[in-house]
Design brief:
It contains 5 helices and 8 strands. The chain is α/β, with parallel strands linked by helices.
């Protein structure tokens, strides 16, 4: 693959990636929020494609494009990059620059075609089911976790039970206030 497929997730210390609204706010206006936004901008500069499932897409489409004075830079980034949403039911994405991928049996072929096209990183965030599917198919090149010092004890986690994984090579660890950024390269 020419381009990297990068899964970026905000996660609790006990591995929960499902955001119930109590531990992660992407618009946080604090020193930590501004520093996290700066790191997110670094990562955004290395990508030109955004890949999500339908549920995450609809949540983001209903939130980011209408933000005014977004200091995080996420709105500008998402409006600028090519967006790919995997959905069997969505016909009109109603967000400029969005292509609908049908997934299912064609998912691997569709993602490989994106990865083999010229460009920068393809980033998936949220979209737990899609991320798990890509992991199971060996289509993820990098995992990027923002680990928050919270233990929920319940909620959806990223790694499916049947995924035996591959070797994860730590390529970056960085403290951002009380959040830890951990980046791993996947290899067989």
């Amino acid at each position: 693959m020419t381009r990297r497929v990068v899964v970026t997730e905000n996660m609790t210390l006990d591995g929960v990636v499902e955001n119930d609204g109590t531990w992660f706010d992407p618009t946080e206006d604090s020193d930590r929020g501004r520093e996290l936004a700066a790191v997110t901008a670094e990562h955004a500069a290395a990508s030109d494609a955004f890949l999500v499932g339908r549920v995450t897409f609809e949540e983001m489409r209903g939130f980011w494009p209408i933000q005014k004075d977004d200091t995080t830079g996420v709105t500008d980034h998402l409006n600028r990059v090519d967006k790919y949403v995997v959905s069997r039911s969505l016909d009109d994405p109603q967000w400029e620059g969005t292509t609908v991928l049908r997934g299912g049996d064609d998912l691997e072929r569709e993602v490989r075609a994106l990865a083999e096209a010229p460009g920068k990183d393809i980033v998936l965030t949220g979209s737990i089911t899609l991320a798990q599917d890509l992991l199971m198919r060996g289509l993820v090149n990098e995992l990027r976790f923002f680990v928050y010092p919270v233990v929920l004890g319940r909620g959806r986690r990223l790694f499916p039970e049947q995924w035996s994984g591959s070797h994860l090579q730590l390529i970056e660890q960085r403290p951002i206030h009380d959040v830890a950024l951990l980046r791993y390269r996947l290899s067989s």
